[in-house]
Amino acid sequence: MANPNLPPLEVQPTEAEDCEMAPACVMTFNANDPSGAGGLTADVTAITSAGAHALAVVTGAYVRDTAEIFDHISFDEEAVTEQARTALEDMPVSAIKVGFIGNPENISAVAEIASDYADVPLIAYMPNLSWWNEEAIDSYLDAFRELLLPQTTVLVGNHSSLWRWLLPDWTGDKSPSARDIAKAAAEFGVPYTLVTGIPLPEQFIDNVLATPQAVLYSEKFERFEAVFAGAGDTLTAAITALLANGHNLQAATSEALTYLDHSLDAGFHPGMGNIVPDRLFWAQTDTDDEEDEAASTDPVPSPSSFDLPTNGTKH
Question: Under DSSP, is residue 228 helix (H, G, I), strand (E, B) or coil?
Fold first, then answer.
């Protein structure tokens, strides 16, 4: 008989077992968003929702509310570099996500770090920068194009934003396709481009993962009659975490788009501005859903179980 006065035995996992149990680490470079709509808040909640551990590197801070961005305060590149390298020396990283990082100096610093981890996929999101002044936009986009796109595995962005950035002299009768944009990105070394928000007839939008040679995946959704803040960061962070967890690119894209759709559908109004995605919608308790689940005996396959072709990696 065991001595009831003795404390319970704690079995410590071995190093190998500990590594197997630990979630994959995802490093994200982004600005803090005090409204909670996007930025690092979006990244951390989406990465966590996708089952990974977020290593959040603050590159600056927005001055904003849920309606608009008024300004941005950048950290200097040494602060960004020290944050990232300190964490990277301690923890293995399985994927890197890059959001808005503030200035060309920070872009250079992140590009240098990424070059030291060339075998790690880097997923870059280019947001709409129309709130900024024109000179700052041009400097930022030039630096991103020259320094970070060659390090990027997947570029994510809205159709309008990517078109105006990568194809400024487009003269076609129709707007450029996702493959046209992917071709432009590939000229700077990007193998995969996910173009979101492509307008379709009858209030639908398309989201297309493409290379210069082919469309790898596409999924259309009905357009919400609402304006959201933080959708792009949410989608990109989810894809990055799913790739870190071993999904192939098509499966990660499919599951991340579904996750974003559910987040937008459950979106809420915390302030007087735009709707914020509920990235933790899955944590909400719904009595009816629990009863339905208890009554059901048929297992529902998760998107990650779908057999999709594997993808290549960053070169």
Answer: strand
**CA separation for the pair 86, 70 (Å, rounded):** 31
Query: For the chain, percent helix, then strand, then coil, each to nearest 5?
Result: 40, 20, 40
- Burial class of residue 19 in the structure, from the number of CB atoms within 10 Å of its CB (0-12 exposed, 13-18 middle, 19+ buried): exposed
DSSP per residue, 209-250: EE-SS-EEEEEEEEPPSS-BSSHHHHHHHHHHHHHHTT--HH
Asked if 276 contacts 37 with a C-beta cutoff of 8 angstroms, the reply is yes
- Nearest-CA neighbor of 116 among 142, 141, 89? 89
Cα dihedral across residues 267, 158, 200, 212: positive or negative = negative
Count Cβ atoms below 10 Å from residue 92 Cβ, excluding itself.
Answer: 11
Distance, in Å, from the CA atom of 28 to the CA atom of 200, rounded to the nearest integer, reads: 32
Entry pTM: 0.84
On the question of pLDDT at 287 being above 80, the answer is no
Torsion, Cα of 297, 302, 303, 309 (10° steps): -100
Provide the pLDDT confidence category of residue 82 given band limits of 50, 70 and 90.
very high
132-148 residue pLDDT tens:
999 999 999 999 999 99
Q: Which residues contact 300 (CB under 8 A, 6 or more apart)?
A: none
Residue 71: helix, strand or coil by DSSP? strand
Scanning the structure block, which residue is given the tokens 């849920």? 66
